[in-house]
Amino acid sequence: MTSILSAVAWPYANGPRHIGHVSGFGVPSDVFSRYLRMAGHDVLMVSGTDEHGTPILVQAEREGVSPRELADRYNRVIVEDLQGLGLSYDLFTRTTTRNHYAVAQELFRTVHRNGYLVPRTTMGAISPSTGRTLPDRYIEGTCPICGYGAARGDQCDNCGNQLDAIDLRNPHSRINGETPVFVETEHFFLDLPALADALGSWLQTRSGWRPNVLKFALNLLDDVRPRAMTRDIDWGIPVPLPGWEENANKRLYVWFDAVIGYLSASIEWARRTGDPDAWRRWWCDPDAQSYYFMGKDNITFHAQIWPAELLGYNRTPGRYGALNLPTEVVSSEFLTMEGRKFSSSRSVVIYVRDVLERYGPDALRYFISVAGPETQDTDFTWAEFVRRNNDELVSTWGNLVNRTASMIAKSFGAIPAAGQLTPADRELLAASNEAFGAVGDHLRHQRLKLAIGAAMHNAAEANQYLSQQAPWKESDPERKATILHVAAQVVADSNRLLAPFLPHSAQRVHEALGGTGTFLPQPEIHEVADLDGGPSYPIITGDYSAQPRWASDPVVPGTPVPSPTPIFTKLAPDVVEEELARLG
């Protein structure tokens, strides 16, 4: 058993999340974590809502509420959506807890004490109309490096280079279009050049990463500059240094504190279990592994900024001791929608909640797993969503379960015992048993498409077996019983192979073959008090200790099998027109 940290990107709490978001961080991390638990590993899956920074301030101002009120509202919306999708977090929390403040400040003090956070005077942008600081990510202009016309003041999404807002050509505010005025301001910068050699050496040891992720991370080393880790803003974590912490207009950079959330969430989880040091098994044990899941726009912060923070902290560790660097940064590409980039403001969007209400969680989880942006940008279309649901989920997997359970219920009323096995029986059973190794190997390396393809192939082979053996025509009762016993075994195997992808329907398949009790534990929402006296809030958590094994488990003859009901719902063709009309 290996201790494995599943570190899932923190959704930003300025609005509900759409399916493009969960295709990058949500479903891939949950499939990975569920498989590892079934395979016997000790998994800690953590995340939460990211609630600091300028976008929260801007959105709160638009809605006429305080930043905390806005964060509270969308934290709850996101918690409900992710729990409904079945994401099996050990803890999904938030960055406005007092525990998170304390952990982030401890890392800042230690990295500063070790000499890697240095003060510098720089040019900050001011809004001429309001006199307020205009953070660099809210400034847009032409990239001075590649000429991209919509580069942000902190980074160009086209070439990936770190930028300073003052270097943009034709800079303007993304809020109101005005040209910012630049004035002197002092901030603490993470000394990335001093850490560049250590970063490079660490990246060179990374094997097995997706090639696009490792290449992008290594390319970042070509232009390493100090990066500001504080901001002129009044919403966020105070800078924990004398002369700074009393300044109401200086706060830690939201991206400095957000990545620390993986550690603070682990510490909060441990405290809530009654064993405050339990988190150390995933963070301080050199044999532990950690996998960070996100979309490609966050590679910079997880393959450069967070490792640099950890390297700076580990130079002379603080109270938490030496902390593990990421084993792998697992980044997905982007999901577009009907050929266009997701845009809430332009109504080119479908929110997670809407899909859950209309089609259920497993139809979406299946689409993301089989056709999501794993290694390249992928387009979501309603026509493809309906086709995948009807032709694959319903016609292949759902049909296998239904026809097998129906014939067993009608002919025997219970799973029959097998008689003499034929070569065809043995071949199918052997292939089904071997599928656990192949599917598991793909999942261990985050190859979801290959994994679910292999699992669905197992179901397709069983369908073909039933068609060839035709138990409905079989006049020999023993042979008929044997065929249906073999089919029931492959259905049970396939249910385990597909359980990480389709955790909700896995319970219904389990019951279709006469299973009782909980087959696969699901996440729950708990309302909790802040451990250190802050306001209460909802968390996602769960007890996932009772897992089915990642192996073939023999079906038990004599288990009663009821007449089944359909596992999946076939979608009508007019669903496509209805959904496209909503986009319009």
Automatic annotation (TrEMBL):
GO terms for biological process: methionyl-tRNA aminoacylation. Is required not only for elongation of protein synthesis but also for the initiation of all mRNA translation through initiator tRNA(fMet) aminoacylation. This is Methionine--tRNA ligase. It catalyses: tRNA(Met) + L-methionine + ATP = L-methionyl-tRNA(Met) + AMP + diphosphate. NCBIfam families: metG. It holds the Pfam family Anticodon_3. One of its GO terms (molecular function) is metal ion binding. GO terms for cellular component: cytosol. It comes from Kribbella steppae. Transmembrane segments: none annotated. Its cofactor is Zn(2+). CDD domains: Anticodon_Ia_Met, MetRS_core. Zn(2+) binds at residues 143, 146, 156, 159. Monomer. Residues 415-534 form the Methionyl-tRNA synthetase anticodon-binding domain. ATP binds at residue 344. Residues 7-404 form the Methionyl/Leucyl tRNA synthetase domain. Binds 1 zinc ion per subunit. It is found in: Cytoplasm. Keywords: Aminoacyl-tRNA synthetase, ATP-binding, Cytoplasm, Ligase, Metal-binding, Nucleotide-binding, Protein biosynthesis, Zinc. Belongs to the class-I aminoacyl-tRNA synthetase family. MetG type 1 subfamily. Its EC number is 6.1.1.10. A motif ('KMSKS' region) lies at residues 341-345.
